[in-house]
Amino acid sequence: MYYQYCPPFVTKNSILEDMRALPPGMSFEDKFYLGFFENDRLAAIMDLILNYPNPRTAFIGLFMMSRAAQGKGIGSRIIGECFRYLRKQGYSFVRLGFAKGNPQSESFWKKNGFAPIGLEVDHGNCTVVVMQKYLPES
Q1: 23, 43, 60, 64: which has the fewest C-beta neighbours closer than 10 Å?
Q2: Which residues does residue 37 pair with via DSSP β-bridges, in sequence order?
Q3: DSSP string, 3-23
Q4: What angle is formed at CA 51 by the lines to CA 105 and CA 125, rounded to 5 degrees?
Q5: Cα separation, 132 vs 38, whole angstroms
Q6: What is the mean pLDDT of residues 113-124?
Q7: How far apart are the C-alpha atoms of 34 and 91, rounded to whole Å?
Q8: CA 48/CA 126 separation, integer angstroms
Q9: Distance between CA 131 and CA 116 in Å, rounded?
Q10: Phi-psi category of 55—alpha, beta or left, where left has phi over 0 and alpha has psi -120 to 50?
Q11: For 41-65, how does the pLDDT look when each residue is reduced to its tens digit (9 = 90+)?
């Protein structure tokens, strides 16, 4: 569904580009491209950038679930574990963007505690709504 709202469709080259893409001023030491597996099958991927846009924030550049893993609570469990880990590492916020108009993404992120911060970014092929979540101390 992601590519209906933020084209073009994925290719091998676009995945390789995503794996190397960094925001201005960031280095590969800050970036993690993670795969999450269930029974030896890739269930989800996450592009995570630490210390962006500031030292107290981690940024999820992409989080995508396989169709087979959707609707089972796996994505929310992955995100919850990510929040707990980031909080233990001293991060106070997680920020991300979703393609405006994508009801599946918007619903998932709101369910997981994210709220729009009033910023939308035009990427030409889609408009990205920026959301953020505060990570309270335990």
Answers
A1: 23
A2: 42
A3: HHHSPSPP-HHHHHHHHH---
A4: 40
A5: 28
A6: 91
A7: 18
A8: 21
A9: 4
A10: alpha
A11: 888 989 999 999 999 999 998 898 8
C-alpha 111/C-alpha 56 separation (Å) is 22
Predicted local distance difference test score (pLDDT) of residue 1: 43
CATH of domain 2-21+28-134: 3.40.630.30
Angle between helix 74-88 and helix 103-111 axes, rounded to 10 deg:
50
Q: Where are the beta strands (DSSP E) in the chain?
A: 31-38, 41-49, 57-65, 93-99, 115-122, 127-134
Q: Is the predicted pLDDT of residue 6 greater than 60, yes or no?
A: no
Decide: 135 and 91 in contact? Cβ < 8 Å.
yes
The string of pLDDT tens digits covering residues 67-110 is 777 778 888 999 999 999 999 999 999 999 988 888 888 999 99
Task: Tokens 């408009």: give the residue.
Answer: 127
Amino acid at 65: M
Using pLDDT thresholds of 50, 70 and 90, give the confidence band for residue 26. Answer: confident
The pTM score is: 0.83
Cis peptide upstream of residue 8 (ω within 30 degrees of 0): yes
**How many Cβ atoms from other residues are within 10 Å of residue 125's Cβ?**
11
